[in-house]
Design a protein that fits this description.
The structure is a homodimer. By secondary structure, chain A is mainly α. Helix content of chain A is 68%, strand content 6%. Chain A folds into three domains: 2-113, MgtE N-terminal domain-like (MgtE N-terminal fold, Alpha Horseshoe); 129-248, CBS-domain (Roll); 261-431, Orthogonal Bundle (Tetracycline Repressor, domain 2). Chain A contains 21 helices and five strands. The radius of gyration of chain A is 29 Å and the shape is elongated. The interface between A and B is large, with 116 and 116 residues.
């Protein structure tokens, strides 16, 4: 009966779109995942490996031998092989390069050479090119002879005899214009195009801004070398939004939900260690005031409020700045205004919330001076938070680092340490 | 000279794509933004309003009178009017409804009726439909007669005489198949389609998964009522990723980088107030142990470490869970395994980092018992963090609330309060 169930499951898997099989594999714990993976037809391995996340792909590839991996890779297009190459064992890649024909080998090697997060790493090579001097009628006949067109194809690329891009012919125009017209007369010459070394981030913004479905990729002298399609861009947008979210939360990389405890722990250690180091420093700031705390234990109870609200308020600022930097809305010329605005918000919040916590401390401990110190410390720490919230991401950006990674940890470090220092320092000076 | 510069600027603006003008408006402080807005040709107002963010749109609409707003809205398609309707004054919408013809009015009213974040709110009405009983030759002639096709059109919708969708004819097939064939013979019948009340989130996942460019939207009886295109889906993906990021950082809504201090402060107050309330509670937990802290001030210096690492570790867990829920990878049947894995990670981290901080406290204060309490408290708080990191977002999801909003605040509340309670409680029991 068990065998019958498996046969039934296998039959169902065969009918599913590779992306749906990938989805099922993602949601299964490791042992069940490998069971299902065994049931997938070998010839579909390649397209499914392409759809799963990096961490799940790793878990699947570990169970495959060299012959299986080679067969899977050979079922893919060159640009698709490049997409999963990072997870393939070195010897499989090498063997693969020897089995490909010269043209494909060159394509694969150039695709592998482009760094992640560039247009070159996202592009594919499935284009249809025509010459400018033919009529639309000829173009239509040519397409019919091809028999099949690539997915996401919404335009033909018009090239000269040196393969240089001179325009594009949108299928829309091809379908609605008199077939007697020449390609040259109908093509669009002003084309959004990319170079393989362009940042993927900028290409994604162009796709969003101009509602593109597909765009040509050309080399330095304008020769057509590939195309970028909206599905690759959407995957990139999703993955980079995910990566930002994960790294802001202190995860080194995408983590398989069902990875082993050991792998999961390792993925989280780097940021936990950094956090621990900054917490130690903040702890030593408090340690310097232990004498004051012994005399007035209320300080210990109140100090996390100052540090915490500073952290929260600073995180609001930092998030807006990171987003503004990512969208390109922040420039050196408007940065001064931003600083003034954030200082304004910090002053306003400092007066409002500072008064609130001041009154709270005063009433709770029947000590108006303690309330005053509390209010003043809150105001000052909110100013610190605003400035740190602006300058930390902007400095990371200036030194060419991703402002989304680590700035939140740095900020909390500043608002914690400074919050403790300001509050305990003021209390020691003014109350004791 | 100033006048000449303005004329020059105006000429440049006229040549830019509306999305590029929108981008410039986003990056300008309010006074300069309004200056540029005045220079934009009135007939382009509509398409530019469509491209800017909600907060910037609000700032622009405030400067426009009723006639200008009506003219801008009338230059847009019905589904586009619906997109900006939320920001238009009530009387403009009402006047608009009276000026539209009956068919457009019905479309606008139905588009306005769909809640945000549904397919209905994202769809447009620019479709090309054909009948199944004609030949491709007839279809090609029909397209040529139309003269112009909508953007992002990669297929024609095949409908019966009751406007029910019976298939789609991809342009790819239309271009590569013998024109003598009938639409019925060539069309694809197994089509990914949506209902207007479907969640936009799920439609976006389908677009990503199946690499769609465009899909039909049908009503309950299968009648074609609109289409969903990849550009609307990409905008939705970007906006909801942004909204998640902003709300996780405690911002109520998208904030114009250059909004006034007052508006910015109001946007941030809700979450600051909630944070303040939770910080008060955590402060009272510490307050309950003031006697212990007076006797051993080292407790005050060490307690933020326990609370802080708990918060960080819990945030790692919560981020993975929120992501798993959003992608649909977490189901009731695999939740138990997730809990076991996270408990495993917490135990491992508790042993490793607990020992580290225990040794640190022991050496620093020359007090082995204090080190032991520190290690034990760390282990326990990491367990609390793991459980809170799983159950908070899963509970929010179960009660149909967005787990991305507020779960981080709730988590920090739990790890702070419990961290202080566990550490100070253990210290009071075991050390004093």
């Amino acid at each position: 009966v068990h065998k019958q169930n498996l046969a039934e499951l296998q039959r169902k898997l065969d009918q599913l779109h590779p992306a749906d099989v990938a989805y099922i594999l993602e949601a299964l714990p490791l042992d069940e995942r490998l069971l299902v993976w065994d049931l997938v037809k070998a010839e579909r391995d390649g397209e499914i490996l392409l759809e799963v996340s990096d961490s799940v792909r790793e878990s699947l590839i570990q169970t495959m031998d060299k012959a299986e991996l080679l067969a899977a890779a050979e079922s893919l297009d060159t640009d698709e092989i490049a997409d999963i190459a990072a997870d393939l064992p070195r010897d499989v890649i090498e063997e693969l390069l020897t089995t490909l024909d010269a043209q494909k080998r060159a394509l694969l090697q150039s695709a592998l050479a482009y760094p992640e997060d560039t247009v070159g790493a996202l592009m594919d090579f499935e284009m249809v090119t025509i010459r400018a001097d033919v009529t639309l009628e000829v173009a239509l006949r040519y397409l019919r002879r091809l028999g099949e067109l690539p997915d996401q194809l919404d335009k033909l690329f018009v090239v000269d005899r040196d393969e240089r891009l001179i325009g594009v012919l949108p299928l829309k125009r091809l379908l609605t214009t008199d077939p007697e017209a020449s390609v040259a007369a109908v093509m669009v010459e002003d084309v959004v195009q990319f170079h393989p070394e362009d940042e993927a981030q900028e290409a994604a913004q162009a796709f969003e801004r101009y509602d593109l479905v597909m765009a040509p990729v050309v080399d330095a002298v304008g020769r057509l070398i590939g195309r970028l399609t909206i599905d690759a861009v959407v995957d990139y947008i999703r993955e980079s939004a995910d990566a930002d979210m994960l790294s802001m939360a202190g995860l080194k990389e995408e983590e398989d939900l069902f990875s082993t405890v050991w792998r999961a722990a390792k993925n989280r250690w780097m940021w936990l260690a950094i956090n621990l180091a900054t917490a130690f420093v903040a702890s030593r700031v408090i340690g310097a005031f232990e004498g004051s705390i012994e005399k007035l234990a209320a300080l210990a109870a109140l100090m996390p409020i100052i540090a915490g609200i500073g952290g929260n308020s600073g995180n609001q600022t930092i998030t807006l700045i990171i987003r503004g930097l990512a969208l390109g809305h922040i420039t050196p010329s408007n940065a001064r205004r931003l600083v003034l605005k954030e200082i304004g918000v910090a002053l306003l919040n400092g007066l409002v919330w500072g008064s609130a916590v001041g009154v709270f401390a005063w009433l709770l401990y029947d000590n108006p001076a303690l309330g005053g110190v509390m209010a003043l410390a809150m105001l000052l720490n909110l100013l610190v938070a605003a400035l740190a919230g602006i300058f930390i991401p902007m400095t990371l950006e200036r030194v060419k680092r991703d402002p989304a990674i680590g700035s939140s940890v740095l900020l909390t470090f500043v608002t914690d340490s400074m919050g403790f220092f300001i509050f305990l320092g003021l209390a020691t000076l003014l109350l004791l």
